[in-house]
Each structure stands twice: as C-alpha cells, then as structure tokens.
Amino acid sequence: MTLPDPRPDFDTVRSLWIGTYAGGGGAGIYPLGRTGLLGAPYPDARNASFGTYSSRFDLHYLVDEQDNGALGVHRRTASGWVRLAHVPVGGAAPCHAALDRTQSCVAVANYASGSVSLFRLDPRSGLPIGQPTVHANDGSGPDPERQQSPHAHWVGFGLDNQFLYVADLGTDEVLAFAFDAERATLGEPHTALKAVPGSGPRHLFFQERHPRSAYLICELDSTLLALDVQGRDLKPRMSLSTLPAGWHGANIVAHIGANAAGDRLYVSNRGHDSIAVFAVNEGGDPTLLQHIASGGVSPRFFMVLEEENRMIVVHERDQRVTMLDILPDGTLAPTDFAVHVPGAAYAFVA
User: pLDDT (tens digit, 9 = 90+) per residue, 58-85?
Assistant: First the structure.
C-alpha cells in the first residue's frame, strides 16, 4: 500500500479527508494518509457528501445530506476541527454546494426536494446570515424510477458571476438564475439548456481556459456534452459517450474534473467502474483518450492532486478509496493504494 517514490506525501504537504454517509457506517470525516487512515473521524461533519472551501474566510462548507438537510460550517485549526454553524437549507438531501466568485454567498443543491438554496455570508465571519432564499423546481422526465420529480444535483456560478446554474437530473434541464452578489438575490429561473429526455444532467463544469465553453455530464445516458456559453444560455456543441465503444453494461456517470492546465477532462463511470480521460483542444472540444479501471466499485467522486500528480478516487458501493497516478500526458496509471473507509462518498483537502 505504501508508495515508494520521491513525490510529496499528502500526509505532510496537505491533509486529505474523506466525507462519509452515516447510512453506510460513516462516523464523520476521516483523515487519510498514504498508508491508510490516520486516526479517529471528526464526528460533527456527518453525511458530508460534498463541500466547498472559502479561502476568504478559511472555512469549509460541508453538506449534511439527509431528509432534513443542513449545511455545516467548519474550520480546521492547529488543535483540530471546530463546527461553527449547522444551518437548515430549507430542502431535502443537499448534495452539492458552491461559493460565488466573491465568496459572499453559498448555494446548495437539494436533490430530494429538487430545490436550490442561497445563503448570504457575513462579510466578517463567513457564517450564513438568516434564512436562505429557496427556489423549488417543478416537472419530471421520462425515466419512471429516477425522474418522477425534480432532482437538483449540482449548483454553481458562471465565470462572470452573473448567473447561478442548477443541473436538474429529474427534469433534464439546466436552470439559470440572474445573480446579484451584493444583494444576494436571484432572478426568475430560466431554462439555459434543455437536455435530451431521459439523459439526467448531473454535474456542470466551467473551464477558465475555455471561458466560452462549459461541460455537462449526464448521469442516466453516460454522455459528456460540450456546450457553448451564450450569455445565460448553454448551447450543445457536441456529445460524446463516456463509455468504450461496444460496451453495453449498466452504467451511470458521477463526477467531472480537469487538470490545472485545462487540456484534460476526467469523468467517472459507475458500472463500468472507470475514469474516462478526454483531451481538450484549443477550441474547447474534447476527444476521448483513455479508459482506466478506477480500482473499486462505483466511483462516486474523484479529486486531482495537481502537486502530487495523483488522483484520489472515492468508491461508494465498496467503500474504498484508491489512487491513480497522473502521467505527464495527463493519462492515468494504476497504483496499489486502496483503503477501506466506511460510508465513503467524498474527498477534500484541509
């Protein structure tokens, strides 16, 4: 399990933490090193299936994905973690969170209630102020099991900070809200993209290297869409499968990310249990380069550790965290690193 090479060890360079589901046996967030778990979990961050970090306030905003959903605000100090707030989001099963570009607001996507919540942050403390603004979507899709109602699965702000976007798996659309950071207000929802019926939009990705492009992964049909950003609208430019040609097993996608250079995109496949690697050209168009086994079952999340040239992959179904090497050309290679973490769902550094 130990990796005998001279690259930095994230035990000492940065601390890696694994968010977990209580229903899977998780007891909070777990510290992870290159030889395994490093100690007891921090118990006051339960069901931390996603989060976001504010450099402005040195705070971690971690969702508490449960029916009565909440957002936890945490700080890691020299003596350990401290929970500074735990506030209801006004929705059920919050699964994603994002800060606006000024770090004056935090938004949360609530999967089960199909809603988005927006909090204003105190400019001195970074803590949420008052009750959130909540917008619940309506509608459905053709999949009788997954699309009976709206399911907000991702929330984020455009590169110009003028719009808040929400990917709704249940209604096959991406919504855009005009956003005023100073007033912490949202305009009326606008359908920025109507996706293929039954495709199930999951995560949207904006790339600073390609500001006129955005990338959407659709969970239910395993596709990567390259989109043209036209004001608040997102126009489909090309669609690629995240699976190898000729592969016909059951699969759903989970997460999308990129390297710092912006010329490689990564997408995780659950079912095929792989990471798909795409090259991105100067025009922002992706081309499939590689599929590599993720090292576990159902890779829900991954994180690129740029300085270490590694990727951490979190597998929900077999509760396993693995590591892949990132090669100089941006493709991936396996390692023998694999650690069991009960309820594993998410990874972040602190």
Answer: 999 999 999 899 999 999 999 999 999 9
